[in-house]
Amino acid sequence: MSIIAKSSTCVLIQGITGNAARLHTKNMLEYGTRIVAGVRPGGGGGDVHGVPVYDSVAQAVAKHPMIDTTILFVPPKGTKAAALEALNAGIKTVVMVAEHVPLHDNLAILEEAEKLGAITIGPNTPGLISPPERTKLGFVPSQYFIPGPIGVASRSGTLTYEIVSRLTLNGIGQTTCIGVGGDPIVGTPFPKILQLFEKDTETKAVLLIGEIGGTSEEEAAEMVKDRKITKPVFSYLVGRTAPEGKRVGHAGALIEGNRGTIESKLTCFREAGVPVAETTADVIRIAKEILKS
Amino acid sequence: MKLYEYEAKEIFQKYGLTIPKGKIVESAEDASRFASQIGGPVVIKPQVLTKKRGKAGAIRFAFNPEEAFRKSQSLLGMTLNQEQISTLLVEERIEIDREFYVGMTIDYSLLKPVAITSPFGGVDIEEVAQEMPAMVKKVRFLISKGLTDQNLEEQVSIFKSTEQTLMKDITKKLYQIFRDYDAEMVEINPLALTKHGKAVVLDAFLNVDDDSLFRHSDLVKPRGMSQDEFDFEQLLKEKKWKYIEMDPDGEIGILSSGAGITMAILDLIKMRGGRPANFLDTAQMDAEGIYNAFSLFSENTKLKVLLVNIFAGLNRCDDLAMGIKRYLQEHRLSMPLVVRMIGYREEEGKKILNEINVVPIRSLEESVEKVIQIAKGVA
Question: Which of A89, B100, B295, B305 is an S-S bond match for B191, by CB 3.0 to 4.6 Å?
Fold first, then answer.
């Protein structure tokens, strides 16, 4: 078992005829992802690596009613329209890889997904990968991942590869690794992901790769503290020494207060009993300790 | 993109909000000329992006043109939070009865936009929120529905009943600005209520989401910078790279891709006693990018060493190594170079670097150790 990306997941690729989409469609197919259709607005017909291309999401879904997931290889300007199209066609999981999607667009997508009971991942994410299921959604480089008991959620793409490749080298495999997205607004922040991993029988422990800013780490810590999450959770936090973001205006401070700082995150994790790795090497040590017990 | 106060005010005025009579000036002569036009006391406000003007004492009052001249002269050329003051906004002084706060931003925890109002505006609004939380009203709303009448009712409920209609109107207008300008944050603080019951925007703040600028071409104009700086900024903008100068006395430059790994490297260096000077985070590295990035770092003569971190997942080690090779063949790098390289086509990349006498290191920790030794002069 894994979360979100499973061998049974039936995938649509929006914007499939772009260069990056073509390349990653091929990579995903080779890895084992079940991609059944692609969309190019107003340019359907033909195929990409054997995947049929349609004019619209509605057409693709009509032909392939089992589609339950879509990956948007669409530029940031077009992400909102593409995501709303997918959601309104009844697709329940939307992965948005684009970076630089406007904030207000992002909020609108999130509201629509919530209304329709769908989940969105990203934007600004390399996607996710479930090694036991041989399924990846997005462009995570699969060579660094092996099946195993750890669930990983991360706010940063490249740091995930850095950390997970070390887990893999040490023989510690993963159920699912998910890039939740680097933007301040993402569809599945840490608390949501923790709930999914909690329900997944194969996941024995969860690693959260977090960073300064936002309050996702604090909320995750609260869930552990309140025993809403019973599986062991550990974390690696970066940005301990990063220059403080220069926030202007009071509105942000009025909302977040002191949350979001490294001190706040460390305190919340400590109070919840979540071990926090100080260095990359530390992550492996903690993972081994948790798996031993 | 943060707008200057006068730019934000121009926009606010278009939406029917009242701003004080004012003029943008770049010389003390013009400031005094405008003061005499006003014929009464004026406020002189430096146009800088930092918000600490008030607390830094950089907002000055003048009662006559002569005083306006003197005070403007002392402000011009001053530096505030590393920003040189070159432009002043001279405004008529408003007789304030009370000061309110109205703002809108995004609650990143609840993932919803939020409107905030308070009958106690001014520089101490954060303390008000701490000490009298009931006096700062926060209303979360849906972006698809906008601020509904019900939202507005709740929003203004902390104001006197005689002020509620006015505050509803102003909050509505601010909301329209928030939406139309894809604002990350929009704020009036303070909103002055005059003795005659008029509401005047004393200070205006508007931060437009950078990722939405394609919808706001009217806002994108070059700002007063020298030609060199402009090109550099332009390159960063085009590539969407993040370049941050951290420490003017730092010794280590860092070139890496991805905010997460870059922060991890900064942490490692600092924990081991090193001093990062600056870093460049290229979202996705390619041969040309690495070449361009090298030229940015070589200009910083204070750097004692440059660390390049390559973790090739989607890109290729050999391709990036070619970028380094090309730069080093065409230019002299003014500082020692440490390359950490791992990932796709690593062996091929290593061969290319070896040709130019660079020996890449596989381990991140070892590469960090190495740059610290070089910076300390022990390697």
Answer: B100
